């Protein structure tokens, strides 16, 4: 039986960890630890998933290697190694050795060459070798007995590539990876490649012809434009291949590829110093783990000096963390010098003392909106004297919102209580550099912090439900679902679980012999998705009968289980009011999120959806909902970002932008544009903005792909600034590592949750559309908190009850409806950030169905 061996690209894994985890991660003495944590989290997760008997970790040597002799410019364009990374590399190597893991580095030999030579030698002698690396160069080694594990998302997900799934992904054999990379080049290592040849072209050429020699022998069959680039770059291509092909070297000795017993004293000292409690715990029993936890607590877990609240409040700045102790709320306050005090904030002398302090002091907390939602009457300082660590963290890491994201960033639990209150000073200081570096204080002070009280107020007020109507709807739906199941059973003679895709597939394509439309993602069975059912429902009777019955059953079941039943419970728990949480620190783009329950995602289409939405009504008989939607706000932001004159002029003139686009694309006067052509233009406007290809456009429009491509080409020819923006904004964002909106909000691309399965353009799409979505979201948020303040001043009985991305819904007395509507529209349209005018379209009604 073969033994398993894992060979690790040490430098590559460390670099990925360094850029995947936040730079704020550090030990108690200030030593950065993001590369250390990223490296060991990845390595240990892979060892958990693929246990091995042999192990080797390879690092690049200092100084030049053989490739510098071949190509003097090799790696000359690389930026200097960040100092924060440089100081962590020796720590990683020390920890590997303390853990008993074999470490290899050889002067003049790159780690890639060392790994491939070792992998081939060990595979030849009977090992089953796996190589862990983020470097595509190592795909060349895949073959008999050798596979490659590659990170596919952050530091948590990995994909194992053998010959089969490599060919499925790239369309050629693993050794041809050298030819593919030779065409592409590598700007990081200054490998030239062939100028003008991109990933898609390289894949096509290698997939069709194979090696460089075969590509150049068949230039006459290559399109003229490509042929010219290939001819001009012939020398560079072959030189690039020499640089990317692994060079043979003496392999690591097999007898040194066996892990040894860890040096527990050395490992304990390193992990204690760096605060790596969880990593150390993997190597020890429970007794030793407890000892480590106690020792690490002395380093990273603050233990404050208890003092009286009155004395603590002599400080100008304190940190506050509420927690529920034995079912009752308790507030923990801390000073920067390590003193702590706790008190019952619900009333009494201590609350009065804090209330007086709040009139002058500065407060540090974690979760401003949450504290106001949970303790709406608690006396807090004016917003300008509050610093929210959660908001600061979110601004730097928008794809890591919430406590879990903060724990990932800081490498320790973020649990309410005295310990968190003490740590808030350290967290604030750790985040301060990034807030200053990216200029995010303005976003924090002028958008996210002012928004928090408005969102807390929306949660506290809630949205009224007609409980009786909602429960009656539930009973009627349950009856209709039961009848539908009985009808299907009677018609087919089969008693199956309609929630089981397999059983439904067997019924449709086995017993009823209906034509299968497509297979499931894995290809193991036929799909029964709603899209498949809708296609089958278009066929003549009797083929369409059961698919139509299944569509009806699914629609009813979804409304019943996903909406009616949960909202009945929320309504009961809230005494006829649903108290959703509106969270502005939860999405990568900055859009508001709604949870417990999600009231931004209610069903819209169909009779049952209308009846469900009609259950949400004003809380008084003389009340009414007044709402307004931003009209085409993201296209207006696009006009601003691209400075496209046609779009800007159309918005200034108040024209129908989709009609105008159709006129430009089809070359006809606006009055001659048909409804179908306008629909095409609308799909194009939004589809291309978010990365839709001509293939996707063809599917959406129901036209042949060449026709869709012609529409795309025509669109970009008449709106060239949009094309330039899509290309340039993606390149700029990837070069600097983050997107930036018009308000200055950033989104680090390395932290975006994308996977290879989403396609090569996933990061491009994020880079292009995040600034647009983010700017539009911030416009809506500014309007929301300004409106909240204006309503409190002018119409105290009116309140905001709902926000759904581009729309705001208010509840007010019927007599005030016209005035509130005018105030709502004026507030939404007066957010001054774009040169094109904003437009809000109002409506009103007696339920959510009406608006």
What is the rounded distance between the termini? 68 Å
Largest sheet: 6 strands, mixed
Top-tier CATH class of the largest domain: Alpha Beta
| Mean of pLDDT | 87
Overall form:
globular
CATH superfamily of the largest domain: 5'-nuclease
Number of strands: 22
Provide the low-confidence segments as ranges: 67-78, 285-301, 754-760
Structural class: alpha/beta
Under CATH, the topology of the largest domain can be stated as Rossmann fold
Strand order of the largest sheet: 3-2-1-4-5-6
Taking all Cα atoms into account, the compactness measure Rg is 31 Å
Helical residues, percent: 40-55%
So how many helices?
Answer: 36
Q: What's the gist of this structure?
A:
The protein is α/β, with parallel strands linked by helices and 851 residues long.
């Amino acid at each position: 039986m073969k033994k398993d061996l894992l060979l690790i690209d040490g430098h590559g894994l460390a670099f990925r960890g360094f850029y995947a985890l936040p730079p704020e991660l550090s030990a108690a003495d200030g030593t950065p630890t993001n590369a250390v944590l990223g490296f060991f989290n990845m390595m240990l997760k892979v060892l958990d998933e693929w246990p091995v008997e042999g192990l080797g970790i390879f690092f690049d040597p200092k100084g030049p290697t053989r490739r510098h002799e071949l190509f003097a410019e090799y790696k000359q364009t690389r930026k200097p190694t960040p100092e924060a990374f440089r100081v962590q590399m020796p720590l990683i190597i020390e920890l590997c050795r303390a853990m008993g893991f074999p470490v290899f580095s050889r002067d003049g030999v790159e780690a890639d060459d060392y790994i491939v030579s070792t992998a081939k030698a060990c595979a030849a002698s009977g090992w089953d070798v796996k190589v862990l690396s983020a470097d595509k160069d190592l795909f060349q080694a895949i073959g008999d007995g050798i596979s490659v594990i590659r990170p596919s998302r952050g530091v948590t997900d990995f994909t194992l590539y053998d010959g089969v799934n490599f060919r499925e992904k790239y369309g050629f054999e693993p050794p041809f990876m050298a030819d593919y990379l030779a065409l592409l080049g590598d700007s990081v290592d200054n490998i030239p490649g062939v100028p003008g040849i991109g990933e898609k072209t390289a894949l096509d050429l290698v997939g069709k012809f194979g090696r460089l020699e075969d590509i150049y022998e068949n230039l006459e069959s290559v399109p003229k434009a490509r042929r010219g680039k290939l001819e001009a770059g012939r020398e560079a291509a072959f030189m690039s291949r020499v640089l990317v092909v692994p060079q043979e070297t003496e392999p690591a000795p097999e007898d040194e590829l066996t892990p040894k017993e860890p040096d527990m004293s050395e490992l304990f000292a390193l992990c204690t110093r760096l605060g790596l409690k969880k990593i150390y715990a993997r190597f020890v029993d429970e007794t030793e783990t407890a000892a480590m936890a106690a020792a690490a607590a002395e380093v990273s877990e603050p233990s404050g000096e208890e003092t009286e609240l009155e004395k603590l409040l002599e400080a100008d700045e304190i940190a506050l963390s509420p927690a529920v102790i034995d079912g009752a709320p308790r507030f923990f306050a801390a000073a920067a010098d390590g003193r702590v005090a706790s008190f019952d904030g619900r009333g009494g002398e201590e609350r009065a003392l804090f209330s007086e302090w709040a009139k002058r002091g500065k407060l540090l907390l974690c979760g401003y909106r949450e504290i106001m939602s949970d303790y709406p009457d608690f006396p807090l300082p004016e917003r300008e004297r509050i610093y929210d660590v959660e908001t600061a963290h979110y601004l730097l890491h928008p794809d890591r919102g919430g406590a879990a994201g903060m724990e990932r960033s800081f490498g320790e639990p973020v649990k309410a209580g005295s310990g968190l209150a003490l740590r808030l000073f350290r967290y604030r200081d750790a985040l301060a550099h990034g807030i200053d570096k990216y200029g995010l204080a303005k976003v924090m002070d002028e958008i996210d912090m002012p928004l928090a009280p408005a969102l807390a107020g929306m949660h506290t007020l809630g949205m009224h439900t007609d409980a009786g109507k909602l429960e009656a709807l539930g009973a009627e739906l349950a009856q209709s679902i039961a009848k539908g199941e009985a009808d299907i059973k009677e018609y087919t003679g089969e008693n199956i679980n309609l929630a089981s895709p397999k059983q439904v597939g067997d019924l449709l394509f086995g017993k009823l012999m209906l034509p299968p439309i497509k297979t499931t993602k894995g290809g193991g069975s036929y799909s029964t998705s709603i899209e498949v059912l809708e296609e089958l429902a278009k066929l003549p009777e009797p083929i369409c009968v059961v698919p139509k019955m299944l569509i009806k059953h699914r629609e009813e079941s979804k409304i019943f289980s996903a909406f009616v039943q949960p909202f009945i419970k929320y309504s009961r728990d809230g005494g006829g009011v649903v108290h959703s949480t509106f969270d502005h620190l939860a999405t990568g783009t900055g859009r508001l999120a709604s949870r417990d329950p999600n009231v931004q995602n209610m069903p819209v289409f169909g009779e049952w959806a209308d009846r469900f939405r009609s259950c949400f009504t004003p809380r008084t008989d003389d009340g009414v909902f007044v709402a307004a939607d931003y009209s085409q706000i993201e296209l207006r932001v696009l006009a601003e970002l691209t400075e496209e004159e046609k779009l800007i002029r159309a918005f200034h003139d108040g024209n129908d932008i989709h009609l105008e686009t159709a006129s430009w694309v089809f070359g006809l006067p606006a009055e001659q544009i048909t409804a179908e052509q306008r629909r095409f233009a609308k799909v194009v406007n939004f589809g291309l903005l978010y990365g839709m290809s001509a293939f996707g456009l063809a599917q959406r429009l129901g036209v042949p792909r060449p026709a869709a491509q012609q529409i795309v080409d025509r669109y970009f020819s008449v709106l060239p600034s949009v094309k330039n923006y899509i290309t340039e904004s993606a390149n700029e964002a990837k070069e600097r590592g983050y997107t930036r909106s018009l308000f200055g909000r950033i989104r680090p691309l390395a932290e975006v949750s994308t996977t290879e399965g989403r396609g090569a353009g996933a990061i491009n799409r994020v880079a292009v559309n995040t600034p647009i979505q983010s700017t539009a979201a911030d416009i809506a948020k500014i309007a929301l908190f300004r409106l909240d303040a204006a309503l409190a001043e002018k119409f105290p009985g009116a309140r905001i009850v709902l926000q759904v991305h581009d729309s705001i819904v208010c509840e007010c007395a019927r007599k005030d409806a016209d005035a509130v509507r005018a105030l709502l529209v004026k507030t939404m349209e007066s957010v001054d950030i774009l040169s094109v005018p904003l437009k809000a379209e109002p409506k009103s009604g007696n339920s959510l169905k009406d608006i």
